[in-house]
Structure formats: structure tokens, C-alpha cells
What does this fold into?
Amino acid sequence: MPRRRPPRPSGRPLVVNQSVEVRDGREWHVRRLTGATSGKAYTCPGCYRPIQVGTGHVVVWPVVAALLSASALDERRHWHTACWQRA
Ligand SMILES: [Zn+2]
It folds into this structure.
């Protein structure tokens, strides 16, 4: 009899273009955004240059919040896709 695969964990919608990556011993959610998002300009922590409005980039936040932050979402950072991959 074939072994059944464990069921996929439920209650968590499958989000396209989002994954978890490990950097510096921490796990990070990485969401890839295509150009058309908010109209806000962000500064990339990798190169300290602005991410132009309408440019595809990644949003990164820790899976586990740092001790002093209220929530992991407070630690959200916007990176150029290339800077994140290089970092
Ligand atoms: Zn950058």
C-alpha cells in the first residue's frame, strides 16, 4: 500500500511570490513585488539609494520579531531585488 503524503498545513493561504529565506541565522519572509504597488518611495538598506516608485523590489520582514520590536511587521524593509540577493 502506498504511503500517504502528510496533508498540507491548512489555514495558511498559499501566497504567490512569497517565500521564507534564511539570512544571518534568522528566517525572513520575502515578498516579491512587481512594479505597480504603492506610490511611496523607499530607501533600500542595501545601497542606501531610493527605490524608485514603480520599480519591482522585495519586501522583507523577520519570521520572528526582534526582542524589542512590537511586531515583526515593524521590521519590514524594502530592498532592491538585486541588493537583497547580493546581501
Ligand atoms: Zn539597493
